[in-house]
Structures are given as C-alpha cells and as structure tokens.
Amino acid sequence: MDHPKLVAVVARAQNGVIGVGNGLPWRLSTDLKRYKTRTWGRPMIMGRRTWDSIGRPLPGRESVVVTRRADFAAPGAHVASSLAESVEIARRLAREMGSNEIIVAGGEEIYRGLLDRTDMIELTEVALAIPGDAHFPALSPADWEEIAREAPPRGERDEADFAFVTLQRRGAEKAL
C-alpha cells in the first residue's frame, strides 16, 4: 500500500459539464448513494471551492483540501498548498486508514492537475447536456479503456438518466 491508486470519482454531463455556480447542476440520489459507498474509508483530495460546496467533513472519509490561500482553515480536514503536497498527505492518510485508493473528488482544476497521475475514473455519465462553468477534462481513448458499465433504472429522486462507467488507464494493472 505504499502507492495507493488515484481514483477520480465524478459525475459528468454529455457536454462535459460537472458543475455550475459551485454546485451540482442536477439531483441524482442514486449517484449520491454510490458516491458515498465508493468514497467511504478513503482519503479524498478536493479543491477549496469543492470543500466550500460540501460545507463540512464527510463522515467516514478524510478530506485533503488544496488551496493557494495561506490563511485558509478547514476544520475537520487537512489543508495542502499544492497538488504534490495533497498527494503526500493523502498517501499517509491512506496508509493510516488501510486504504489502497485515494479519491480525487474535484473540482475542475484538481481533476485537470491530477489526471496524468490518475489510475482509474469512476464516472457517472449523466444523460443531459446543460450549461455549466466547470468541466471535466476530455479523455483520450488512447489513454483510457472502459472496463465496466452499469445503467441502473432511474430512481424517483433522480432528475436524469445515467450510467456508471469505470475507466482504467491503458497499461495499468487490471482491477480485481
């Protein structure tokens, strides 16, 4: 567990939108339940605006907040001044938590900055094309392969259809 995998967990609209106005542009209760399950017991790296949008530490997880603001404090979370520092902190936390994964939880700048180091993407494809101000980076099929897909039925509290897709970096060890 010296080098836990970096796993980006993200919900993305058909046009690449992941957020608007520092929040999610949809309500998908089914996806939020999966998010909780997928991130539980793991350290999570996120940007300050993502931390602000969540508003609190998430139970069962350790948050590492990346910010350029030297005076920033995030009660209940760890603060890093760079992506490299955030990964160092998250690796230590992963060892302490007994986790072989570190979650990359967004937003746009964090996903972009860590994409080259990300091993796997747990993607919720949202069947919408909507305006937004935060986007997930374009993925090259040369770099990523789909290894799993599930399209559960739309729940009562879901505002759109969706599919859960697991992408693995090409050339990486196959997930068990």
UniProtKB/TrEMBL annotation:
Coiled coil: none annotated. Residues 5-169 form the DHFR domain. GO terms for biological process: dihydrofolate metabolic process; folic acid metabolic process; one-carbon metabolic process; tetrahydrofolate biosynthetic process. It catalyses: (6S)-5,6,7,8-tetrahydrofolate + NADP(+) = 7,8-dihydrofolate + NADPH + H(+). Pathway: Cofactor biosynthesis; tetrahydrofolate biosynthesis; 5,6,7,8-tetrahydrofolate from 7,8-dihydrofolate: step 1/1. SUPFAM superfamilies: Dihydrofolate reductase-like. Pfam families: DHFR_1 (PF00186). GO terms for molecular function: dihydrofolate reductase activity; NADP binding. Keywords: NADP, One-carbon metabolism, Oxidoreductase. InterPro entries: DHFR, DHFR-like_dom_sf, DHFR_CS, DHFR_dom. GO terms for cellular component: cytosol. Belongs to the dihydrofolate reductase family. Key enzyme in folate metabolism. Catalyzes an essential reaction for de novo glycine and purine synthesis, and for DNA precursor synthesis. This is Dihydrofolate reductase. It comes from Methylocystis echinoides. The lineage of its organism: Bacteria, Pseudomonadati, Pseudomonadota, Alphaproteobacteria, Hyphomicrobiales.
